[in-house]
Structures are given as structure tokens and as C-alpha cells.
Amino acid sequence: MDTGTRLSGKVAIVTGGASGIGAETARVFAGQGARVVVCDVNDVLGQSIVEEIGEAAAYRSLEVTKEDQWAALVAEIEDAYGKIDILTNIAGISGRDPQQNIQTTLTAGGLLEDQSLEKWNQVMEVNATGTFLGTRSVIAPMRRAGGGAVINISSICGIIGSYANAAYHASKGAVRIFSKAAAIQYAPDKIRVNSIHPGFVDTPMTQPGHANPEIAQIRTNATPLGRFGTPRDIAMGCTYLASDEAAWITGTELVIDGGLTAS
Predict the structure, then answer these.
(1) What pLDDT is stored for residue 207 in this prediction?
(2) DSSP 127
(3) Fewer C-beta within 10 Å: the chain N or C terminus?
(4) What is the DSSP letter of 101?
């Protein structure tokens, strides 16, 4: 694990921390000196990440759609560490059938006309409402700490349209504009809120699509830098926005997509 001091003395919450971008962000944050609370619903994987990181990390089970769980988590962390400096809202779902091992069509999660209200609500609840609840929950403790950084993981799907699930696009677009509104409201409290917009990154969420050679080729061809992103590519963006290096950055979106949206 890389070591440094970019986040020295800071206390961070990382949701979706059991795998993919969340797990790598937890690793990098801890390596840069932060105390990290890894949150997820996959307790086995979450605990394994904390064991890997060591004493700088702790695990807490969290359903991001549950208001009472957020309240309890934030109270516990502030009591234990005295403050909360960083929140990374990384937990999210694609809306794809969880039993699907290989994506067989360009449209992940089905066409709009085939989308059930139940599935739409589920995607919006986890991706958008979960981000709202997490951000709202840390405002008071960050204000008491004299400021803080909230990093919300959106997607290039929050900026442009594609063959992806329409509910996913809607939820990630909501994360983008929500982050801007929150940034303006809480700038006087020195609470910075920004969104990150990954392109095609190799994670457990994207594995079914990338397991199909045809879809994988279409996606890499659309990416000027010619490769999929890695969780570390996104984690380093989170680290920058969480650090004091980004002290004058709020209400913006950091696109990390290998150049895809530039073409």
C-alpha cells in the first residue's frame, strides 16, 4: 500500500467500500494517513478489506437508503474520533439483473419500455437517495469540525446518454446536480461537495458487460486512451478532492474517463 500524508489526521467514511472503487479508495485514503470507516452491506468482503488495511480502518454495516442507520453511524464515528472530515458516497447499483454473468445486449438493465417501476425506484433510491442521506447526515459534524469534503460518485452516464439503463442515467444525473446545489448551500461552512464521473472502469459492477468481448471492444474503442479504467484511477481522484490540495474546489465534476466524453 502506498504511503503518504495527503490526508493525515483526517477521518473518512467510504460507502460501497467492500469492493471495486470503494475498496481501493479506502486503501488509498488509509495509505495517505486517514482513519477510514469502510461501509457496505457485504459484511464478509468489507471485513476483509479492513483486515487488509489494518488498524487505520474499521468496518460498519450500512444500508445507504436507511436514514436511521446513517444517523447512528455518524453519531458513532463523531463520538469515537471526534470529527468527520471526508465522506465518499460510492455505494451504487447498475440496475442489471444480479444473476446476469454476461451482458448479451448493448443496453445494460433493459430498455426503458421494459423497466418496471419497482426497479426504477430501487436504482434511484440507492444511487440518488443514498447520496442525499449520506451528505445530509455529515453536514452538522463537518460544520462542527470547521469544514469537510463530500465526494459523490456519479458517472459519465450522469452527463451523457448511452445504451445503459435509463434509471441509472437518471440517478447519476441527479447525483451530479445535487452535488452542485449542496456545494453552494454549504460553502459558507467550508464544506466542499464535488462529483466524480468515471467512464468504463473494471469493477464487479461492470464485469458482466466487459465479459462480453463485443461489448468490451465497443467500449475500449470509444475510449481515446484505449483501456478501461481501474479502481485506482478513480480512487486517486477521490484522494485529490478529499485533500487540502483541493481547498478551492467545490460544486464541480471531475471526469475520469480516458477521454471518452471529449470525443
Answers:
(1) 66
(2) I
(3) C
(4) S
Model confidence pLDDT, tens digit, residues 26-66? 999 999 999 999 999 999 999 999 999 999 999 999 999 99
Whether residue 168 lies in the annotated active site:
yes
Domain 11-257: give its CATH superfamily. NAD(P)-binding Rossmann-like Domain (3.40.50.720)
User: Active-site residue among 81, 168, 186, 240?
Assistant: 168
Helix (H, G, I), strand (E, B) or coil at 224: coil
